[in-house]
């Protein structure tokens, strides 16, 4: 038996649902929909909250649903989702509740994508910029090259890490000498 489609359901409709606690037994509970919790059709049934507060998946429409639905639909219940949810991609892994405004959307950023670079995304602390000015980069590169020639058996990444940790070159040379 096929479960009802989203187009058949709206707040106020009487339905038969399987509550979470009764999934194993399949026991049906009849009630009136107060809120639709699933955004689209679902093979096991659309999840709804009944007016009694219980939550379950709709298995079928109750016989008198159309009569009650037209007479008792509460005016304050939202029957459609806001437009921000309509075009949201359907992800099969995990839950997706919709994009909240706090997450931000790069497509709404006022800066055009073409004029941004990766450097705009990297945040460095003011202290690291002060201790590593760009003029000393060339000096560090030549020091690195000299240490690599002096200690050819050591890995270049190890040499770079020790040079970064020790500003005194003689101290770094002593540590590298003890490692080789």
Automatic annotation (TrEMBL):
Record field: compositional bias (Polar residues): 73-82
Region annotation (Disordered) ranges: 73-142
InterPro entries per record: DUF2196
UniProt feature, compositional bias: Low complexity: 124-138
Name of the protein described by the UniProt record: Uncharacterized protein
Species assigned in the record: Cladonia borealis
């Amino acid at each position: 038996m096929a479960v009802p489609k989203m187009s058949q359901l709206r707040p106020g409709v009487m339905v038969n649902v399987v509550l979470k606690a009764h999934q194993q037994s399949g026991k049906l509970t009849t009630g009136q929909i107060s809120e639709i919790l699933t955004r689209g059709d679902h093979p096991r049934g659309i999840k709804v909250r009944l007016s009694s507060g219980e939550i379950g998946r709709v298995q079928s429409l109750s016989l008198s649903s159309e009569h009650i639905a037209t007479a008792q639909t509460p005016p304050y219940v939202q029957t459609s989702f806001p437009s921000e949810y309509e075009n949201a991609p359907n992800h099969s892994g995990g839950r997706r509740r919709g994009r909240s405004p706090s997450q931000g959307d790069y497509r709404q950023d006022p800066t055009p994508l073409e004029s941004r670079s990766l450097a705009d995304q990297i945040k460095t602390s003011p202290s690291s910029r002060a201790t590593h000015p760009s003029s000393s980069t060339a000096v560090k590169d030549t020091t690195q090259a000299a240490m690599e020639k002096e200690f050819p058996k050591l890995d270049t990444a190890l040499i770079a890490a020790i040079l970064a940790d020790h500003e005194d070159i003689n101290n770094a040379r002593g540590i590298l000498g003890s490692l080789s």
